[in-house]
Amino acid sequence: MAYTIIGVVKNFNFESLKQTIGPLSFFLGGRNGMASFKVKTADITGLVKRIEHLWKEMNPGMPFQYAFLDDSFNEMYQSEQRVGKIALIFSTLAILIACLGLFGLATFISEQRTKEIGIRKVLGASVEGIVRLLSKDFLRLVGISFVIAAPLSWWIMNSWLKDFAYRIPLEWWIIGLAGFIALLIALTTVSFQAIKAAIANPVNSLRSE
After folding, report:
1. Can you tell me the distance from the alpha carbon of 23 to that of 12, in angstroms, rounded to the nearest whole number?
2. What's the rounded Cα separation, in Å, for the pair 45 and 29?
3. Which domain holds residue 56?
4. Residues 70-110: tens digit of each pLDDT
5. CB of 24 closer than 8 Å to CB of 14
6. Most CB atoms closer than 10 Å: which of 22, 56, 128, 191?
């Protein structure tokens, strides 16, 4: 059967972004039972009621059913959205647990080195120097963790993005930014206890052996 081409449109995605753009044809015909509209979203409820009224007048034997194209597209990515929410929840919990662990460890180390800190202050050590002394070991641990986690994270994200025909490039600075944020969170968590130990009166820590 021969068809006459009356127009050509630019390529667009009509399936999930996991598939490349394929061929698509639109046909003008006398098929009844379905119509598509491009509408403004100012008063969707009132618009749907008016369309339903007109539908029942024009085709009373056909039940009125409708769907929005954006909802149909959202259904394609429900699994990705679900994974994103789960990842956000578990990431938040992991950060909170890690911060609690760092805070507890910093508190323990400060208590263990109370007399050392007191002696250093008596000998002229500054608050900044003591904070740096107590924080550097934790920052070193965070750095080692980042070195281990960075290639693993890159591999996991790159494997996930391979499922999509159209994807963003996985730049190195994304991993670097994540490492910097992790370092900043660890430094903020540890610094509170480190500053508290650094500004404490050395007399109280050296009063008894």
Report:
1. 10
2. 30
3. 44-73
4. 887 778 778 778 888 998 999 899 888 988 888 888 888 87
5. yes
6. 191
